[in-house]
Amino acid sequence: MENNNSRKKEHIMLALHDKIEHGSAGFEKILLKHKSLPEIDFDEINLETNFLGKKLKFPVIIEAITGGFEGGGKINEILSEIASEFGIGFMVGSQRPMIENLTLAKTYKISKCPPIVIGNIGAVQLNYGITEKECLRAIERINADAIAFHLNPLQECFQPNGNRNFKNLKKKINEISAGLRSSGMKVIVKEVGTGLNYEDVKDLNIDCIDVAGSGGTNWAIIEGKRGTNPSAELFYDWGISTVESLMNITPLKDKRNLEIIASGGIRNGLDAAKCFALNADIVGMALPFLREIYANKDGKILENMDKEIAKQNLRKFLSKFIEELNIALFLTGSRNIKEIKGKYNMKEMM
Ligand SMILES: Cc1cc2nc3c(=O)[nH]c(=O)nc-3n(C[C@H](O)[C@H](O)[C@H](O)COP(=O)(O)O)c2cc1C
Questions:
Q1: Per-residue model confidence as pLDDT tens digits over 271-286
Q2: What is the pLDDT of residues 14-27, one digit of tens each?
Q3: Atom 15, ligand 1: which residue's CA is nearest?
Q4: Does the C-beta of 118 come closer than 6 Å to ligand 1?
Q5: 63 alpha carbon to ligand 1 midpoint, in Å?
Q6: What is the pLDDT of residue 350?
Q7: For atom 19 of ligand 1, which residue has the closest CA?
Q8: Domain of 107?
Q9: How far is the CA of 192 from the centre of ligand 1 (A)?
Q10: How many distinct structural domains can be found in the chain?
């Protein structure tokens, strides 16, 4: 049986050193509508947003990456400190390792106080014995405000001893979600990089959906590079792009009052602006943050991270991202992310 902790470590190393992105998230097909007379003052643009009942300074969350081993603990410490500093959201990586071994709880430690902290567990684990009580205990241990259940059927197919029984999972997610929501917890369902369609998620009784579409981190590549299943390469193109996933999910926003996280291949503030035009409430990224942690001043990936350099890199990345988002809002005459909704043309039909 493969060890959870060494797997998480290997994922990080591959994500840092290999090309693990593939295809397109679809942003090149979206053209924001230019205004030569925006009729607003750049300085009145305000990116503050309410997300799942919390006030964020910027509409960004750091997506689930890691936890469960010492290096992962350091990554979570740095990311949560930056999330607090910028007033953005923070999601830990899968908490399954700490549910199975409580001594690993310290590797999910949240430093400072991000405006929203989100726990994370594989939804399929609900079919393999993880109970509502264990979910609640895991999220309470890190003082989370919400929990994200991730859907990762492709990854489970390609990782050694993957958990492939996804039968009746919708019903289980709804049962456990009802219990957690009655304890005041917000519930998110997310993909991990293969996107979502309307039919799969339309009956989920949750608070928020994170599309995690294809075009960014690609699990067929990551597991393929680990070399345990030679068929992984055939599936590099598999999935629903982030743009298409957002379009699929949009009707649920009004019908079910769900909040939407756009993620999967978002790499700059212009990509983010396009997501807001497509109805997203907030955007999330994983790989760009991870790479900034390990980069030196010239962007070269280091073997060992340096906390201060990592934080400087993250500050620089986020400041540039926010500037790009502000410029896109300005050029569309939008004073906030709500005002940019619908201000786009499609370059071609998907
Ligand atoms: C190294 C790595 C580890 C990840 N681990 C998790 C995880 O434990 N749980 C989860 O829900 N998503 C996990 N993800 C997926 C991300 O949270 C995110 O949904 C996905 O990577 C898309 O964003 P990106 O293209 O910006 O990386 C991981 C991503 C990376 C790069």
A1: 999 999 999 999 999 9
A2: 999 999 999 999 99
A3: 192
A4: no
A5: 6
A6: 47
A7: 192
A8: 4-24+50-316
A9: 5
A10: 1
Specify if 103 maps to a domain.
Answer: yes
CATH of the domain at 245: 3.20.20.70
In Å, how far are 82, 306, 320 from 315, measured between CA atoms?
8, 14, 9
The pTM of the full predicted model, rounded to 2 decimals, is 0.97
Task: Identify which of 217, 218, 301 to mutate to test ligand 1's pocket (most ligand atoms within 8 A of the CB).
Answer: 217
Residue 37 has pLDDT above 70, yes or no: yes
